[in-house]
Amino acid sequence: MDRKVTLAVHKFSSCDGCQLALLNMGTTLVELAERVEVKHFAEAGVLEEDAQVDVALVEGSVVTAADEQRIQRVRNNSKYLITMGACATSGGIQALKNLAEDPESWTAQIYPQPEFIDSLERSSAIKAYVEVDFELWGCPINSQQITAVVTQLLSGVVPWDDREKLCIECKRRGHVCTLITQDAPCMGPVTRNGCGALCPAFGRACYGCYGDASLPNHSGLAVRFNGLGLLPKQVEQRFTLIHPDPDARLPIGNSDKQRHREGQADE
Amino acid sequence: MEQQIPSFLLRNDLSVLLDLLVADGYQLHGPQVRDGAITYASISSLSDLPVGYQDQQKPGHYQLAEDHNKRFFHWANGPQALKPLLYPAREVLWQAKRNASGSIQFIVPVQSFEKIAVIGVKACDIAALKLQDQHFLQGEYVDPGYQARREGLLLVAVNCSYAASTCFCVSTGDGPSVESGFDIALTELDEGFLVAAGSEKGERFLTRLPLQNATAQQLDAATQQHETVAAMQTRRLEPIAVGQLNDAREHPQWQDIAERCLACGNCTMVCPTCFCHHQNDELVMKGDESQHIREWDSCFGESHGQLAGFQVRDTIKARYQQWMIHKLDSWQEQYGRSGCTGCGRCMSWCPAEIDFVAEANIIGGADE
């Protein structure tokens, strides 16, 4: 290859935790910098927001009118766009506002001068606005996911989208099931792997931050949660903790955009 | 080797056996309590064993209770036993390195040959081991890693003195007592163990133990214990003929199961005979080195049924059929017997509380 692959990291509404997964890569980050040219990565001090790049990593959800414009520019400037983290892939925790019946009253309850808040009615995933080529789920994502997707792209192969259930990885690692032994409402049976079964490794139930695995049986798991003594409202809260937007369960691709447009037309 | 009349070993003299094994270069591996379950891991002395614990199991539930007895092995099982030891959940099959000249070098990792003695293996798991041996060692291609680990293994089996409500090894013909496939077999009684050798290797250790002749009373107690445990098993998998489940794919019960099944794969992961796996390449960031990884896979997962460009099993129903029909039906044509040894793990560790035996009996027509 004559020139290095170029990379940009863009931030939208988020906590920066996924960018930290990049910065926390240690020596691997140095190796990454040797193989790619980082054009824009504000958290790391590299600024060229409108640079044309081969790969864009996008963190955060779209919540302002300015975000709406900027994500179009990012898309136009990038050959391959990867969303990283819960906010970018599903709208994130801030998409709780999408469920609110009277979102404006929330602003008034939180901020002393709500008139300074200028945001859209919804917190939306990046794929609601532009086509996304690959998604990294998780809240936050981890360094291994970045390494895997970048090395696969640099090798010229389509990245492997692992939508396997968390339980499988949990069992590989020999963790004792928290749902079976502790009656804990573990989301593992419907949640996508990628974290390496981090919470169960510490005896904690999975809370579903990696979103849906393939073929999730939500109602089946809800039945078990009811059996554990959770009330219907508690079950619902368990399922919507990190990915509250009901649209978050859409697959990526054209159908999403279609559905989003239809949604806008309805409004 | 001929069956011999077992000898008697005092309870605390079991430590002598452990010492002999260690002196002979064996690492000790055995049951212990971890995170609310009986799990197998390294042990250093008798005090690591789950003395006085008992497992209460039913579909979707596993609880350990403190038992009044002071026995080491008065429990049924935990989520895993021998499988992770011989067939690791994740294993590097080979590495590839690109040299400065651009040529690629393939490196096969050196297979370790550690001597491991597993203390307290149950009959269902010995039966499962025989099936894993058949798969990994006796086919057209031998698995070198499995073979190396298997050759270093010494098995100290224990005849069950307790059955969980999920146990059904009597109906599969695999327990509750071991008959072959072990090096040493123990029958735990209140005051000690009846000990028998099952191999030349095991016999060499027995000759160095402080054994006494077993009394007629002890032999009777062992027989009684065997019968009591067998009678404790109320769950029964009815015989399934080759093709019987496969021919029943239209049975309405499959759809009923599919509505409850989470397709999480836990049943296959804890099954001591499941051997499915996938392989992946993991690259380092520098791009000059990759590892070819083999990991446990499940027929409930997405990658298992993903062929070139299409998914062959895209519903939970199809995946559950694959699991049960292969395990109980087509396995017989493949390996000469059913793939189920009656351990009950697929039920206990199922988050949806699915009763595998009851479902098989319904679909097989035994409950009609």
Structure, described:
The complex is a heterodimer of chains A (267) and B (368). Chain A has 267 residues and is an alpha/beta fold. Helices cover 38% and strands 11% of the residues of chain A. Chain A has a 5-stranded parallel beta sheet with strand order 2-1-3-4-5. In chain A, strand 3, helix 3 (65-77) and strand 4 (78-84) form a beta-alpha-beta unit. In chain A, helix 10 (218-227) packs across helix 11 (232-239). With 368 residues, chain B is of the alpha+beta class. Chain B folds into 2 domains: 7-87 and 111-232, no CATH class; 246-280 and 297-364, no CATH class. Chain B has 12 helices and 16 strands. In chain B, the strands form 4 sheets. In chain B, strands 3-2-8-9-10-11-1-12 form an 8-stranded mixed beta sheet. In chain B, a hairpin with a 5-residue loop joins strand 6 (90-98) and strand 7. Chain B is globular, with a radius of gyration of 22 Å.
Describe how the helices and strands are arranged.
The complex is a heterodimer of chains A (267) and B (368).
Chain A: E1 5-11, H1 17-23, H2 27-35, E2 36-41, E3 53-59, H3 65-77, E4 78-84, H4 86-90, H5 103-110, E5 134-136, H6 143-154, H7 166-172, H8 178-182, H9 198-201, H10 218-227, H11 232-239, H12 254-266
Parallel strand pairs in A: 1-2, 1-3, 3-4, 4-5
Chain B: E1 7-10, H1 14-23, E2 27-34, E3 37-42, E4 53-58, E5 61-66, H2 83-86, E6 90-98, E7 104-107, E8 116-121, H3 123-137, H4 144-151, E9 153-159, H5 169-172, E10 184-188, E11 192-197, H6 200-206, E12 212-213, H7 216-232, H8 253-260, H9 266-270, E13 277-283, E14 289-296, E15 306-307, E16 310-311, H10 316-335, H11 345-348, H12 356-364
Parallel strand pairs in B: 2-8, 8-9, 9-10
Antiparallel strand pairs in B: 1-11, 1-12, 2-3, 4-5, 6-7, 6-14, 10-11, 13-14, 15-16
Helix pairs in contact in B: 8-10
Give the quaternary arrangement of the chains. Answer: heterodimer
Largest sheet of chain A: 5 strands, parallel
Q: Which protein chains are joined by the largest interface, and how many residues does each one contribute?
A: A-B, 47 and 49 residues
The geometry of chain A reads as: globular
CATH class of the largest domain in chain A: Alpha Beta
Mean pLDDT of chain A: 90
As a percent range, the share of helical residues of chain A equals 25-40%
Q: In angstroms, what separates the terminal alpha carbons of chain A?
A: 48 Å
Low-confidence stretches of chain A: 250-267
CATH topology type of the largest domain in chain A: Rossmann fold
The helix count of chain B comes to 12
Order of helices and strands of chain A: EHHEEHEHHEHHHHHHH
